[in-house]
Write a structure and sequence with these properties.
Helices cover 33% and strands 18% of the residues. By secondary structure, the chain is of the alpha/beta class.
Length: 1808
């Protein structure tokens, strides 16, 4: 079974949950059921999903998290552990009309990739398919076919005019002859006649196999100058008698050889297909006319003139009926009189010409003419920045099919490409089922196409599996029902193939026909069997019965729900009639009610919209009609798009969209109205609620206003509205709370401090009705309100009429004040239905979309009764429905089918329910079964049904992996080891992690994914059982220059948030705490400024993104005409068009003049628009702010000087933003001219004056971040907040404490928070990231770590292993790449790759428990651990030493460092003791400067002696040697130049005229492959999915074009050489010492496996470092004594490779160099000549030299490194026994490196 631990929830109180406890096992399928509103969504979505998603998403960067859904932390006692969660709910996926089913389900990127890989364009002129023929193939084919014939090879230069311009260039290039109409002309001397086509002759020859090379060269030369070469087969004509006549070349055949993709008929070239060309979201692919929408916006003239029976005088032109359009009507009247157009004649009676004149008019408005109604709408389009104009236009919009692309969305170029003879638009128009059939039949031509086809088959197959095969791929996502959208999202979850994940589904059966439910159940079962936990909110009995467990909440809704009533097998739930679900299931078999007769019917004739097949439908009136049928059969199209719209339009409602295609509507006579009751949201703000929607609040307000206390206080009914300024609390505008944005955390809602959430003013709250205030009445449920205010003794008919229908439809549990935005789709629909019940129903047609959606079976009956009540009151009801309960209780059923999509669209039955059950249709069969059969329960699945708890990899071929297959157990610590370059990272990161990360990313929205890093799909047959993956890899590239420990751990993010939200601002000048002030105080301050002119600004926006049209409109309406925007003065009308994605600062110019003359109204306006602040500046309005400007604030101001403090946000505390950074040092903290000195302005804090003065619990931001992690934790642990501050700080403070705690837990508590991240080791960076994951509490996840012991002293390894074990003990899988022996022995499972690196690696040599692998005879690691290292060479005492004095940077304590020159020196010590600071930040820069070399200054002031004998100092670090595939080892080592010269000197090259430049893959003028531009691979963009990278098909990955590859040295082309490893190249170029010398050094360093052409971006840090060493060893022709500084050079090295490195380092010493190596590796320390150890501890407890001497003396010392050396030596003899006896629980042994017995032999003494 899965290793994922059970999810354990305790004390959940989210919304109405009443301290719920729940335990969910891995591999289980669990249904949450219960009455509607009982708390199911609160439990599943708002608690379990919210926390699971939040914790996993925390592993993303803050930048990425801001684009993901930010869910609040649920109110629970504990939720430990919880799995990474994915929600598949019914919320509207998208609103954009660009989004389709294909984009929603990620099919679209694969379709684009399919066309990019497989499409062939069809020439629009010749209707021939384009083709690519290489010059080599063309030359061979032409030579074979036309051997012995004469030919001319030429290329076109265009017309004669173009040729004349090109003549000088052609002469210079050596061309001698032109060809015009088969006649030759000399380039030098003859005049060119006029002609449409002029050709340049390149060569003339007799074709033969011997001349094939010559023909190839001629064709390639043509391609360099033109897009095509033309080979003319000619017959030489006889010379004319006139000596002046020219010889003609009679062409018998013209053969066009296109350079690229071209038409074989006309040589028209086509660009190679690429993914962006096939995207209508890209300007390269979108139709230019409609911008990829497929439709264009126009005016619906039926809405403009809705009633043709009206005259113009009567208001036939609807938008001109108001008072505001008097001028337009007058202009029309004058024009009509002049044109003799009668204004008193009905519009329909006017002639077409007269109607057109009214619409078109003449002239312009400006010249007093009447330009017509069309021009009026065009004028409005130029004013759409005004809200009321946009609202007006929206009433008359129409969306017409684009006349250019006809709805295809793509441009003509994109549409010319075809796959299986269909363009992409035709693929889009097909259904899922049809597309799947095409993909199955498709045989791809390329490897890339095969990858894409396999993915398409899977994704389309999942869509078919969940019952969506009927949908077309271009179906707009916004037209999908909630159920369809959810099932579309479910396919993404199914396709992800994740394990260890919590999937939450919200009523997936909604909108699904009963016969499609079993398929859905199977899909969810497969998810659970994959080792996941699947939790579904569901009401469908058959789906619940198919689950393992049913959890019922209740007993009722709202406050009376929220408790778990039952938790067990569904079969047992069915036997519980005392529970709501059990009671409903007891009556499972349906009994149809007696049906009503009907006398009249509506008739729709000739319906052909979408898939409806020219059907005629009769819809009875006065009864309840159910329209049903399989999903996609056409129900919604028939009922909503045609019936509702056509009836509404026929009854005069022109606001609805045009009805779908039909011939005629009959039988309308008895109807007076039509109402659509769908599931669309009722509101998106908190201002609308059940009371206002039902208009019951009008009655409550009237009753409150009638109270004596209200009359006495002169309060009217409007005072009791929170939407009107009279009685509401103005501090919160009647909202009751304030929403505070918390950046990457969920927003926080705070109770209004003035009204305490009661929304009204005190005098309004003083009035009581029935003993309750207005706020208390809003908190009543509808049932409670009716019981209290409509008692039998004092009935209130108006109130009952408004509220009783809500109880009838089961919504009595809603509170009167519950915002409409919080209602589910089903609740919103029932609320609409309730309002319909309160209105007169006679003569009204009610069209209702799935009224049972979201309803418990027990709640369906009241809804059906309400529908019948509408019929009883004279109405007619038509419902679209799948619920068999509703269908059985209807009067008449119209069944569409027989299937969905193209298989639907017919009326297969129309009858009463009882009769329908006798039909053999899908609905009839399901209805009959429901009436006669009982529920069928699934047998609970056991552990055996869950897939094996392993990560399985089958045939991985990524990089050098040799078709590797393995199975890694879940839930333990798995270590992957092996020689350097053996494929460890390829297997762990590029295959396993890449798949886990990619699959989880695919469950996110396409919008979110575009901001997240995604890895390409690995080359592997299959990866199964992979959980959501989190990578904690070594970061080779350092963090940014401004990054600190606080920023990289995100501690800074939470600190900034806390300082911004609850910090206490102080005046930057006076250092006094800021307080709120009054408007009067500001007026007094302004009066003191005198009579000089000033400008009063309102600071409306400060460095915020947006367009801010509403601010300019409000300013304009308030009389403000000018504003200062981003350093420019602009007018507010028309408003400036701002870039939405850029930050803007806006100051509104409120007034100018003497401050004493500013009115109170002007000051109030400035304060209102400036959010409590005003700015005053001397002089007239200026474009740029001046330093003399002052800001005053009513919210935050200095009590001494009155200076206002702006509202703070986290950016103020970042030294990377303009607001936060010190303006003098730009946030760097040091003097701009002397980096060794602190910035005087900010004293090194890097912050601006304002944030420097903000205090939180008495500490400034700079003071707190200067502390160590350990000290900071002790401070923030004592922080206490109360009231609103407690709520604001809660989430951020919790995260801050948690992150600090876990940083300390991984052994990094010594780091100061402001420590520069660039000074951290790779191991420290990795452990910082690990600290964030330790507290996540995730189960079932996969953590992949890359050598976490790097930078870790052997003493600290135990703590790291304990932390890794803690992750595994939570049920997660920990996969570690490691060379450290202690970690290897601690593994639960060990993989040893080898047998060596590069091409000789990539195989699993041994795998299994660690003890077994380490006994394996072929294991490279076992052999290395059992072999003694070589003895350390003996060297005489050195005569000179390097002395550094006064090192005091960071934690160093006035250190004096002495190092022998010409020796192998190692600086050791515990992590954080100051090694890197001493060597890299002090010694190395000081040494460089002393030698006259460029360098940054050392930290602090130091003195350096003993440099006389040294010439160079070089830092050999692990930074990348390049970042693109163009930088390769061969170029870095400078051997590529030698190889290119070698190839240029070969005979074949000389014959062809090739120089060394020909063999460069970086030069466009060389011989590189033009298809991939010398990259060797092609990258196919996949929009929101990872790019697909495949070898270039043109050059087969060899980087060069064919003629260049034809040149060979010892059988290998230049492209083949790039694929040689260093070892192979040494053999191949054995006689070329300049080439092999650097390569031999690579072999000695243990990286001989690296390929010469391997991209530098693929090299590890250790490989990059050893390449640099190799370059150093071979680059200098005259060696100079050098000091090499190396930081942990054993990083990434297997023990055997580390020994090679030690030998090479000794070689450097032997040639006279000095080594200073920072290292923890015990063998390196033991092999050194001299060891300096820092300590004794880390951080402030370190920074001292605790030992200096030779290794054998170190082993006798009591330092931590000395103890480790002794421990390692002691463990040496007992290695085998220890290995065999070690148990999983024994991981306490520290350092265990194995040493040569001679390593600690007596050495000659070194200087003290």
């Amino acid at each position: 079974m899965s290793s994922m631990l059970p999810i354990s929830l305790r004390g959940a109180k989210t919304h109405n949950l009443q301290s719920v406890d729940l335990r969910l096992e891995a591999g289980s399928l669990v249904a949450l059921c219960g009455p509607s509103g009982s708390g199911k969504s609160s439990l599943a979505l708002d608690t379990l999903y919210a926390e699971g998603q939040r914790r996993f998403v925390e592993s993303f960067s803050p930048y990425a998290r801001q684009f993901l859904e930010r869910l609040p932390r649920p109110d629970v006692e504990s939720l430990e552990p919880v799995a990474a969660a994915v929600a598949v709910d019914r919320r509207a996926p998208v609103k954009s009309s660009r989004s389709t089913l294909a984009t929603l389900t990620d099919v679209e990127p694969y379709l684009s990739a399919l066309f990019a890989a497989e499409a062939v364009p069809r020439c629009p002129s010749c209707q021939l398919s384009a083709q690519v023929v290489s010059a080599v193939d063309a030359a061979e084919r032409i030579s074979d076919t036309h051997g012995g014939q004469s030919a001319i090879v030429a290329f076109s230069v265009g017309s004669s005019e173009e040729a004349r311009l090109a003549l000088p260039r052609l002469r210079e290039q050596g061309f001698r002859r032109l060809l015009i109409a088969d006649e030759p002309f000399d380039v030098e001397s003859e005049q060119i006649p006029d002609a449409d086509s002029v050709y340049v002759v390149v060569d003339r020859m007799v074709l033969s196999s011997q001349e094939q090379g010559r023909l190839l060269d001629a064709i390639e030369l043509c391609h360099r100058h033109s897009s095509a070469a033309e080979v003319r087969i000619v017959e030489r004509g006889s010379q004319a008698a006139d000596s002046s006549a020219r010889s003609r070349y009679s062409s018998t055949q013209r053969l066009v050889v296109g350079k690229d993709l071209h038409c074989p008929g006309c040589a028209r070239t086509f660009e190679p297909p690429h993914a962006r060309l096939f995207s209508y979201n890209s300007p390269l692919g979108a139709c230019p006319a409609c911008k990829g929408f497929g439709r264009v916006i126009g005016i619906d003239w039926d809405k403009v003139i809705p009633d043709g029976s009206k005259t113009i005088q009567q208001g036939a032109i609807r938008p001109w009926n108001g008072q505001i359009s008097q001028w337009e009507r007058a202009a029309l009247a004058r024009y009509a009189e002049a044109q003799r157009i009668p204004l008193d004649k009905p519009w329909d009676k006017l002639t077409k010409a007269q109607q057109e004149k009214v619409l078109a008019g003449e002239g312009t408005w400006d010249d007093g003419k009447y330009p017509g109604v069309r021009a009026w709408f065009q004028f409005l389009e130029s004013r759409t920045y005004k809200m009321h104009v946009r609202v007006l236009l929206s009433r008359y919009r129409s969306y017409e099919l684009c006349a250019i692309c006809h709805g295809a969305r793509l441009n003509p170029t994109a549409l010319s490409y075809r796959v299986l003879q269909k363009n992409l638009a035709e693929w889009h128009a097909d259904s899922v089922s049809a597309s799947l059939a095409k993909v199955v039949a498709l045989t791809p031509r390329s490897a890339q196409g095969k990858l894409v086809v396999d993915s398409l088959r899977a994704r389309l197959g999942f869509l078919e599996q969940v019952g969506l095969g009927y949908l077309t791929l271009d179906r707009q996502a916004r037209t999908l029902s909630g159920g369809e959208a959810q099932r579309a999202s479910l396919t993404t979850a199914l396709g992800a193939g994740l394990t260890g994940t919590l999937f939450v589904l919200d009523e997936p059966s909604v909108g699904l026909h009963p016969t499609d439910v079993p398929k859905l159940g199977q899909a969810m079962r497969s998810l659970a069997q994959g080792g996941n936990t699947v939790l579904l909110i569901e009401h469908e009995p058959s789906l619940i019965a198919a689950c393992d467990r049913a959890v019922e909440l209740g007993p009722k809704a709202g406050r009376h729900g929220g408790r778990i009533l039952f938790d067990g097998p569904p079969k047992e739930l069915a036997a519980r009639p005392d529970l709501p679900t059990g009671a409903a299931w007891q009556n499972h078999a349906l009994a149809p009610r007696k049906t009503r007769p009907f006398a009249t019917a509506l008739s729709l004739l000739g319906v052909t919209e979408n898939n409806l097949r020219d059907i005629d439908v009769d819809i009875p009136l006065g009864v309840l009609v159910a329209v049903t049928g399989p999903s996609g059969s056409g129900k919604s199209t028939l009922v909503e798009d045609i019936l509702y719209r056509s009836v509404a339009r026929a009854l005069g409602d022109s606001s609805v969209e045009k009805p779908g295609a039909h011939r005629e509507l009959r039988g309308l006579g008895g109807l007076r109205g039509v109402v659509l009751v769908d599931q669309s949201p009722l509101g998106r703000t908190t201002r609308g609620n059940a009371a206002t929607y039902t208009k019951s609040w009008d009655r409550f307000r009237a009753r409150f206003a009638a109270q004596a206390s209200a009359v006495a206080a002169e309060l009217t009914a409007s005072h009791f509205s929170f939407n009107v300024a009279k009685g509401r609390c103005e501090a919160c505008s009647g909202e009751g709370y304030e929403t505070v944005e918390m950046q990457f955390l969920a927003d926080v809602s705070l109770l209004c401090p003035v009204c305490q959430g009661k929304r009204f003013r005190p005098e309004v709250l003083a009035v009581r009705l029935g003993g309750l205030t207005v706020a208390e009445v809003l908190d009543l449920s509808i049932e409670e309100a009716l019981a209290r205010f409509d008692p039998p003794s004092e009935p209130d008919p108006a109130l009952r009429r408004a509220l009783a229908p809500l109880i009838r439809v089961g919504l009595g549990y809603l509170t009167l004040g519950q915002p409409l935005s919080t209602l589910s789709g089903g609740e919103a629909q029932r609320l609409k239905l309730a309002r319909a019940l309160s209105e007169p129903a006679r003569g009204t047609l009610f069209v209702i979309d799935e009224p049972s959606a979201g309803l418990h079976p027990g709640d369906v009956a009241p809804v059906v009764a309400a529908l019948h009540a509408l019929c009883d009151n004279g109405g007619s009801v038509v419902v679209v429905e799948h619920d068999l309960d509703v269908i059985a209780q209807s009067d008449w059923v119209i069944d569409l089918g027989p299937g969905g999509g193209p298989d639907g669209g017919q009326v297969v039955a129309a009858a009463p329910p009882k009769e329908l059950a006798k039909f053999a249709t899908r609905t009839g069969t399901a209805l009959n079964a429901r009436m006669t059969q009982q529920l069928q329960f699934a047998e609970p699945s056991g552990a055996d049904s869950v897939s094996e708890a392993v990560i399985s990899v089958e045939h991985a071929r990524e990089h050098n992996l040799a078709s590797v297959s393995c199975k890694l157990p879940h839930g333990g610590l798995t270590v992957v080891t092996g020689p350097s370059g053996s494929g460890k990272s390829s297997l762990c990161f590029d295959v396993i992690y890449a798949e886990g990360q990619r699959r989880f990313m695919e469950t996110l929205s396409p919008y979110a994914r575009q901001f997240l890093p995604q890895l390409p799909r690995p080359d592997v047959d299959h990866v199964g059982g992979v959980p959501p993956a989190i990578a904690l890899s070594q970061r080779i590239s350092r963090a940014g220059a401004n990054s600190t420990v606080a920023t990289v751990t995100e501690v800074a993010h939470y600190l900034r948030l806390l300082y911004a939200k609850v910090g206490l601002p102080h005046c930057p000048t006076c250092d006094e705490p800021a307080h709120a002030t009054s408007t009067e105080s500001i007026l007094e301050l302004l009066a003191k400024l005198g009579s000089e002119p000033y400008t009063l600004y309102s600071p409306a926006v400060r460095a915020r993104k947006g367009t801010y049209l509403e601010i300019f409109q409000l300013a304009s309406r308030s009389g403000i005409s000018e504003a200062r925007v981003d350093g420019k003065l602009v007018q507010t009308e028309p408003p400036p068009r701002l870039v939405k994605s850029a930050e803007h600062t806006i100051d509104l110019v409120v007034a100018t003049g003497s401050p004493s003359q500013f009115s109170r109204a002007q000051i109030d306006l400035a304060i209102q628009l400036g959010d409590g602040s005003v700015t005053i500046a001397p002089g007239k309005p200026s474009a740029k702010p001046s330093r003399s400007e002052k800001t005053y604030s009513t919210r935050r101001a200095c009590p001494t000087c009155g200076q206002g403090i702006p509202e703070l946000d986290p950016r103020w505390f970042s030294f990377n933003t303009k607001q936060g950074q010190c303006s003098v040092c730009e946030g760097r903290g040091h003097d701009p001219e002397d980096e060794a000195k602190r910035c005087r302005a900010c004293d090194g804090t890097r912050l601006a004056p304002l944030p420097r003065k903000v205090r939180l619990q008495g500490q400034t931001y700079a003071e707190l971040t200067a502390y160590s992690v350990q000290r900071a934790l002790s401070i923030v642990a004592d922080w206490q907040f109360v009231g609103g501050e407690e709520k604001l700080s809660s989430a951020a403070l919790h995260e801050l404490r948690r992150r600090l705690r876990f940083i300390e837990q991984v052994g990094l508590g010594y780091l100061s928070l402001d420590r520069a991240a660039s000074t951290l080791s790779g191991g420290e960076m990795q452990r910082l990231r690990l600290s964030a994951q330790l507290g996540a509490g995730l189960t079932g996840s996969l953590y992949v770590l890359d050598e976490p012991t790097i930078g870790l002293h052997p003493r600290d390894t135990d703590r790291l292993l304990h932390n890794l074990r803690a992750l595994a003990d939570l049920g997660s899988t920990v996969l570690v790449i490691e060379h450290d022996e202690a970690t290897i022995r601690a593994a639960d499972y060990l993989l040893d790759l080898g047998p060596s690196g590069g091409k000789h690696g990539g195989q699993i040599i041994a795998q299994g428990p660690a003890a077994e692998v380490l006994r394996h005879p072929q294991s490279p690691t076992a052999r290395a651990l059992s072999t003694e290292p070589a003895a350390r060479p003996k060297r005489p005492s050195p005569s000179r030493q390097l002395t550094l004095r006064g090192a005091s940077a960071h934690n160093l304590k006035n250190v004096t460092l002495k190092l022998p020159i010409g020796r192998f020196n190692v600086v050791a010590g515990v992590s954080g003791s100051g090694k890197s600071t001493l060597v890299q930040k002090v010694l190395y820069p000081a040494l460089r400067l002393a030698l006259g070399l460029a360098s940054e200054p050392p930290l602090g002031t130091v003195k350096l002696d003993g440099t006389d004998a040294l010439k160079r100092a070089l830092l050999v670090d692990q930074s990348p040697i390049g970042r693109t595939p163009r930088s390769v080892p061969a170029t870095f080592l400078s051997v590529w130049d030698e190889i290119r010269r070698l190839y240029a000197g070969l005979p074949d090259s000389k014959v062809r005229g090739f120089t060394a430049g020909r063999f460069s893959f970086n030069s466009g003028g060389g011989g590189r492959c033009p298809t991939c531009e010398g990259q060797g691979v092609q990258v196919s963009e996949m929009s929101f999915l990872p790019d697909v990278i495949t070898p270039c098909e043109a050059c087969a990955g060899l980087r060069f074009e064919p003629s260049t590859l034809a040149v060979k040295f010892h059988g290998l082309s230049i492209g083949d050489v790039l694929q040689l490893s260093a070892e192979e190249a040494v053999s191949h170029f054995a006689n070329h010492p300049k080439i092999i010398r650097p390569l031999q050094t690579l072999c000695e360093l243990g990286i001989g496996y690296i390929q010469l052409g391997q991209g530098s971006h693929t090299l590890s840090g250790g490989e990059a470092q050893r390449l640099k060493l190799a370059a150093e060893l071979t680059a200098l022709s005259h060696h100079e004594p050098t000091v090499y500084v190396l930081d942990e050079p054993t990083t990434g090295l297997h023990l055997s490779d580390a020994r090679r490195l030690i030998a090479l380092l000794h070689k450097l010493v032997d040639r006279g160099d000095t080594l200073v190596v920072i290292e923890h590796h015990l063998e390196v320390i033991a092999a050194a000549d001299w060891v300096v150890e820092l300590g004794p501890e880390a951080g402030q407890h370190g920074g001292q030299i605790v030992f200096s001497g030779e290794p054998e003396a170190l082993a006798k010392s009591a330092t931590e490194t000395g103890k480790a050396l002794v421990s390692a030596q002691a463990h040496r003899p007992a290695m085998n026994a220890a290995t065999s006896s070690r148990t999983r629980s024994d991981h306490s042994t520290t350092g265990s490196a194995i040493f040569s017995s001679s390593l600690l032999a007596d050495q000659s003494s070194a200087p003290s």
